[in-house]
Backbone:
C-alpha cells in the first residue's frame, strides 16, 4: 500500500507563527488560526461559529455547551498578544441567524470589551447574514483595503488579493506511516483561505474538489496548525 510521500520536517519549519506574502503584503499565520497584518495592525479570524453547541442542542443533539467559551478564550488570548487596532471576522462568526441572541451576558461582555477602542468588521457569512444585535461593529459583505479584498466565501477561479474563509481547509500528511490531519491556511501568495477558528468546527481536505481552480497549483502551499506550532509545507507533500 502506498503510504504517501515522506515528509522531512526540519526544526526551522516548525514555529509559533510563519510569515507569508499575499500580493506583496506580509502577513503572519498564527498557531491559533488567526492572521495578523502588521502593516495595517489588523487581526483576521474566520468561521468562529459561536453558539454552535446551543444550535445543536435545540435540535436534540447533545454536545458539550462549551464551544463559545473555548473560542472566545482563544480569541481573547490572541488579541491580547497582538493588540491590533482592527479586527476582521470573515463570516460565520455565529452559527445561525439567532445565535447572537443565545450568547450569555458574560460572552456579550467579553466581546464588547474586545471591541473597545478598536475597529471591528463583521463580514456576512452564509450562517450569519445579518448584523449581531447587542454588539458593536460594522457589517459588510466584503471589505477592501489596498490590493486586498476580505470576504467569507472564495469566488470561483483565481482571485488576486482575496482573503476568504468558509471552506475550513485541512491538510493531511503521512508521518511514520500514520496520517496526520490538521486545519491549515492555504495560499499561492496571490490569495489565501483561512482555517476555521471555532472550537467545534471540522475541516475539509484541500484535495477536495471544492478547492479546484482557486489557486495556482505550482505555487500552492499550506501552513498546518499544530499544538502552539505551525508547519509550512508545500501542498505537493499533502495527501487526500
Residues:
Amino acid at each position: 500500500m502506498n503510504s504517501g510521500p515522506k515528509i522531512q520536517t526540519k526544526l526551522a519549519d516548525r514555529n509559533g507563527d510563519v510569515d507569508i506574502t499575499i500580493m506583496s503584503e506580509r502577513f503572519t499565520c498564527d498557531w491559533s488560526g488567526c492572521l495578523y497584518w502588521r502593516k495595517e495592525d489588523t487581526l483576521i479570524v474566520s468561521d468562529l461559529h459561536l453558539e454552535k453547541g446551543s444550535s445543536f442542542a435545540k435540535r436534540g443533539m447533545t454536545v458539550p455547551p462549551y464551544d463559545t467559551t473555548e473560542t472566545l478564550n482563544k480569541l481573547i488570548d490572541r488579541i491580547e498578544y497582538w493588540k491590533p487596532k482592527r479586527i476582521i471576522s470573515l463570516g460565520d462568526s455565529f452559527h445561525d441567524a439567532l445565535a447572537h441572541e443565545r450568547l450569555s451576558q458574560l460572552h456579550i461582555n467579553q466581546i464588547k470589551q474586545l471591541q473597545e477602542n478598536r475597529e471591528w468588521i463583521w463580514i456576512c457569512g452564509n450562517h450569519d447574514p445579518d448584523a449581531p444585535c447587542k454588539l458593536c461593529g460594522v457589517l459588510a459583505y466584503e471589505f477592501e483595503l489596498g490590493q486586498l479584498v476580505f470576504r467569507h466565501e472564495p469566488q470561483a477561479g483565481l482571485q488576486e488579493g482575496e482573503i476568504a474563509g468558509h471552506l475550513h481547509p485541512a491538510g493531511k500528511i503521512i508521518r511514520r506511516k500514520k496520517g496526520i490531519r490538521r486545519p491549515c491556511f492555504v495560499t499561492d501568495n496571490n490569495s489565501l483561505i483561512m482555517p476555521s477558528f471555532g472550537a467545534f468546527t471540522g475541516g475539509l481536505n484541500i484535495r477536495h474538489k471544492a478547492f479546484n481552480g482557486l489557486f495556482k497549483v505550482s505555487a500552492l502551499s499550506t501552513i498546518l496548525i499544530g499544538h502552539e506550532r505551525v508547519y509550512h509545507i508545500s501542498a505537493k507533500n499533502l495527501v487526500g
